[in-house]
Every structure is written in C-alpha cells, then in structure tokens.
Amino acid sequence: MNLPAPDEKTASLKTLTTVIYALYALSLFMGLTAIVAIVLNYIKREEVQGTWLESHFTWQIRTFWWGVLWTVLGAITWIILIGWVILGVAFVWFIYRIAKGWLNLNDNKPMPL
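Below the sequence we write its predicted structure tokens.
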C-alpha cells in the first residue's frame, strides 16, 4: 500500500479543513451542515494530531459546542427578550470564529488556543 507523502497528506487534510469551515459557514443557512461538519471533525481528528491543523479542528469543535450552548440559551430566553440579544451576539461570534479560522488556514497558520 502506498502512503501519501507528508506534503500530500497535509494538503489533503488542509482541503478537508477548508471543507469543514465551508460546512460551518453553510450552517448559517442550513443548520444540518454543522452536524456533518462536527462528525467529520471527530472522525478525522486523529489524523491531524501533531500537525498545525490540529488547532483548527479544536477551534472548529469548540466553535460548534459553544455555538450550540449559546443558541439553546438564546432560544430558551427569547420570550423575555434577552434571548434575542444572546442569539444576535452568538450569530456574530459564530461568523467571526469561522472567518478568523478560515483566514488563518489560508495563511497556513495554526489557531491560538
């Protein structure tokens, strides 16, 4: 069995990381894509261990789970109006996290954790 060269493997994992960022971005319009993205994060997490891409996977996973928490909190409290603020801030925060991660990925930089 031929294993890919380290540069090929890194390029392939970088492409996968890009696809996962795209899935998270699409989840702003179709929430189901975030589920696909988080499943991919967990399935492929072992393959990125020890590389600079590992920080992107951790960033993506944290973005997903914190996003879920703030969305649920906002949904629960929307009736008392504070939920609208929570949902709005969570929405902007989510966009920021995806944009910052994607830009760092494009520049071949790890994410600060």
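The radius of gyration is 16 Å.
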